[in-house]
Target: 2-hydroxy-3-keto-5-methylthiopentenyl-1-phosphate phosphatase
Amino acid sequence: MGYIIACDFDGTVTASDTIIAIMQRFAPTDSQATLSRILDRTLSIQEGVTTLFNLLDTSKRQAIVEFVRQEVSIRPGFQTLLDKAQELDIPFYIISGGMHFFIDPILSDFTGIEAVYANNVDFSGEKMLVEWRYPCDDVCASGECGTCKPSIVRTLGSHQVIAIGDSVTDIRLAEVADILFTTDKLTTYAEAEAIPHIPFQTFYDIVEQLEEVVR
Ligand SMILES: [Zn+2]
Model:
């Protein structure tokens, strides 16, 4: 049974959270309360992110894409990791709770990504409306993931899963991982819960260890 890589986008491929950066730039005052409620978990991610994007005028689409391309930095070593995965014949998937309209332009600078799973935005109205494309399947114990990363992984067939993530939104993904690379808040969580994991700072750290862990 071969391996696949399931890699988060926000705060993992990017060095900081893209959605938070977008809100701080385009809806700094109005987004504050909703961001706080997502972080203290009194609002689900799905409800919270829907509310946040609904603050944004659809006419701002291009400005947001340009802002993200200019302001958001990529964690070092990303293309090197993609190359390494190709060399080892491991398909590399991006699985994100974010939106295609700002993720795809960033990822178009890179080669070797098998597919990008993310959400759509309806731009037909005055405000942006998030279309959640990947609800939880029957197996997911959460039932309220927003974007259900383990459900997406299950649609990819039976493989051993190498998961890469940074945050609480990757906890359910971490649970279906055979090998788990963590950074930031996901490292803290894995330590607290005694979940086997390999911490990383840059993608070069993963490049160095990938061949060893899949052997
Ligand atoms: Zn789920």
About this structure: Residues 77 and 205 are 8 Å apart (CA to CA). The first strand starts at residue 3 and ends at 7. The longest helix spans residues 61-71.
